[in-house]
């Protein structure tokens, strides 16, 4: 079975059909499919169709609730707390970012915490929704143990992504969406499934030795960015998205691929605010900021200084014009899930 190419819309319909087969409503299936397809289009394959079977497996084992009764508690005009009732993470996050945007329209700032959720894909996908409304946003979510706290032999923190988004005064938003690990776990899982090597210096095996074997890396420890600083950032995200929201924390988030003993209870935190809270000319100021930095002298071999989100935007535009390549393994997943 070789790689095949499928039109985006046709693939999206297939994924919606699969999610509906597993009990999701039309609306929830559509929200989930859109997030997965977006990951494929921006080139984040570790967060795309490679995870579809995992979500369906967790629904089948009744640890993702396909018919959640999601509750939104109003704390104030600006603040909301969401109990996702073990829903698929895409749905909880979609509701949360929309609620944060809604709260921001009323007061200038929106703060929404989510508990009892699951893996929601790419943080940047939700950040883009806020930036399109001319808002600045910060988003945090925790994840299953993968990174050892600085000085520890045991992994406990997740790859805990940090996300920041802002309008730029142009059509390309500034979206920084980065895990605190040297490489995100999704990439390692894709490499493991396809028997590919991972870069040296991003993970240790279970004996504490540097490894380029993806399967050994999954059983070992991922390394944080910038040593103890990266470990500190992971801890910060664990506090903000786990301790603060009512979600699991301190290594208690279950691995979605390997641990079917219960729901993940992941916590998310969404913060959105208006650009004009302190200055009325934010757009011209951010344009100036980017212009100055882009005009700096460049090192040899660098054609352009790019800001976070530029390359992802280009990939999305380019891939949206083409059919999506489906690997042999993903084809097998789709075939199995459609039975």
Tell me what the structure shows:
There is one protein chain. The protein is an alpha+beta fold and 339 residues long. The chain has a single domain, classed as Malate/L-lactate/L-sulpholactate dehydrogenase, NADPH binding domain (Ribosomal Protein S8, Chain: A, domain 1). The protein is 39% helix and 16% strand. The chain contains 11 helices and 11 strands. The protein has helices at 8-21, 26-41, 52-60, 89-107, 123-131, 185-193, 214-219, 228-243, 282-294, 310-320, 328-338; strands spanning 4-6, 71-74, 79-83, 109-117, 135-141, 162-166, 174-178, 203-204, 221-222, 266-274, 324-326. The strands form 3 sheets. A 7-stranded mixed sheet has the order 2-3-4-10-5-6-7, with helices on both faces. It has a two-stranded antiparallel ribbon with strand order 1-11. A two-stranded antiparallel sheet has the order 8-9. α4 (89-107) links the parallel β3 (79-83) and β4. α4 runs parallel beside α5. The model has no long low-confidence stretch (mean pLDDT 95).
